[in-house]
Amino acid sequence: MLMTFGLIPIALAAQSYQISKGEGEVMVTGTSTLHDWEEVAEQKSGSISVDKTGELPTISTLKFTVEAESLKSGKGAMDKNTYKALDTKNHKQIVFNMKSVKSISPVSSNKYKVVANGDLTIAGSTKTIDLPFDLTLDEGKVLLEGKKGLKMTDFNIEPPKALLGTITTGNEIEVHYNTVWK
């Protein structure tokens, strides 16, 4: 019986946080032959479990989801091209699911540089990636900030074209994330 009680403090030490929908931002940026562009994710969700009882925090889970059709550029035609390229009729969500933490190092008393490894699924294609971010632990909330470059073709996505192919989107995109978890 003593063994069982000895494990309870460890189990209770990790705290789970949910993404705060009204705070933070996830944005995708890229280029085209006409202009640079950006799209902001209007619907995102996720959870992270962090244990901060040790010298360095440990992250046991991190899952992040963006509703694919919530990516908005402010230009309806561009959004339609994006949804077609992402095949949102068949693949409604973009999901990152962490498998492990590769590294974590302190920046200040409550801020850490983290590299998480996990599966990223876009348009039904899954790749294992390293996701770098700054983790800040701040009175009942967690902040994740960073950016990650990706290639559309790595996820079997044909970069969108417009006006009979005279305007082409660059293959390389960058995902910027500045999220708040409570």
From TrEMBL:
InterPro entries: Lipid/polyisoprenoid-bd_YceI (IPR007372), TTHA0802/YceI-like_sf (IPR036761). Pfam families: YceI. Residues 16-182 form the Lipid/polyisoprenoid-binding YceI-like domain. SUPFAM superfamilies: YceI-like. Coiled coil: none annotated. It comes from the Bacteria. This is YceI family protein.
